[in-house]
Structures are given as structure tokens and as C-alpha cells.
Amino acid sequence: MINNLPFAIRPYQPAEESQVVTLWHQCKLVVPWNDPHRDIALKLQVQPHLFLVGTLGTAVIATIMAGYEGHRGWLNYLAVSPEHQRHGLGRRMVEEATALLKAEGCPKINLQIRASNTEVIAFYTRLGFTVDDVVSMGKRL
Ligand SMILES: CC(C)(COP(=O)(O)OP(=O)(O)OC[C@H]1O[C@@H](n2cnc3c(N)ncnc32)[C@H](O)[C@@H]1OP(=O)(O)O)[C@@H](O)C(=O)NCCC(=O)NCCS
Question: Which of 52, 85, 123, 136 to mutate to test the pocket of ligand 1 (most atoms within 8 A of CB)?
């Protein structure tokens, strides 16, 4: 319970788009090369049940976008609103997404964090993630 409201984790609903995008801006997850509205629209076409929100009543205060392509699970757009951080909610979001990925048979989760983002590296380390000895590469399509 937070402020007498239960914290609940469930799949994203389209009516929550503006709340989610506002949260991502607050958490500095919106970058010039990614349109958050387009990212949400794309996710709704692929495994939408793995796009989760954490709510307090009708307020969206956390998100996580997971995916599984048959080999690895991926986590993106993890966010907890600044005023609710450091109370275990980020951990709960990752644990819920992990449970859903595991239920689909996913054997390992990968994720990407900017090397300069030492706080989030510390967060995932607390959750048992380790740094893989790999170079992350990408190509825009
Ligand atoms: C990363 C984020 C989701 C963490 O959420 P949170 O609710 O504050 O994290 P929790 O309270 O669940 O913390 C879980 C553990 O990580 C630790 N932790 C959290 N933030 C930390 C930090 N900045 N530095 C060191 N440790 C941290 C906590 O102490 C806790 O450890 P414990 O369970 O062993 O006591 C939140 O800081 C956030 O939204 N950041 C901005 C968005 C972002 O950068 N997302 C990741 C993109 S890759």
C-alpha cells in the first residue's frame, strides 16, 4: 500500500498512453531518436501482454516493456516515477516481467544500459544481473 492505495502491476491499456509518456519524460527515457508514441504503437503489435504498468489507483507510476524472441528475453522502458523511487517498486516491476518471461520458456534476460548510467547498473546488480563480456551492436532499419 502507498498513500492508502494498493500498488498493482498489470498490462498497459491504451487510455494510459499520455500518462506513460509523461512518466518516461520525467524519468529521462525519451531520446531524440525514439518517438515514445511510436514505440508504444509498435509494442501493441508484438507481445502487448509483456508491456506492464505499475499503478496506484488510476495513476501510472511505473512501467516495463519486456519481449521474448524465442532465444532471449529483453527489458526496456523500466521507469518508476521520481517521487516513488527507492521503495522497491523497480524491483517488483522487473520481478513481474521476469516471471512472465520465464512462464514463456525464456532462459535468459538481456538488457542494455548506457555505460555512463552507473545508477541503473547498480540497480540491476542488486537484482542479480551481471555484466556480459560482449559488445552491444545495432543497426537502424
Ligand atoms: C532504475 C529505477 C527503475 C529503479 O527503481 P526503484 O524503484 O528506485 O528501485 P528499487 O527501490 O526497487 O531498488 C531495488 C534495489 O536497487 C537499489 N538501487 C536502486 N536505485 C539505485 C541507485 N540509484 N544506486 C544504487 N542502488 C540502487 C536499491 O537500493 C535496492 O536494493 P535492495 O533491494 O538490495 O535494497 C528508477 O531509478 C528509475 O526509474 N530510473 C530512471 C529511469 C531509468 O534510468 N530506467 C532504466 C533505463 S536502462
Answer: 123
Q: Of 68, 89, 67, 69, whose CA–CA distance to 79 is shortest?
A: 89
For 77-86, how does the pLDDT look when each residue is reduced to its tens digit (9 = 90+)? 999 999 999 9
135 inside domain: no
The tally of domains found in the chain comes to 1
Please give the residue range of the domain that contains residue 71: 7-126
Ligand 1 centre to CA of 86 (Å) is 6
Q: What angle do CA 37, 111, 104 make, to 5 degrees?
A: 85
User: How far does residue 93's CA lie from ligand 1's centre (Å)?
Assistant: 11
Q: Whose CA is nearest to atom 37 of ligand 1?
A: 85
CATH no. for residue 106?
3.40.630.30
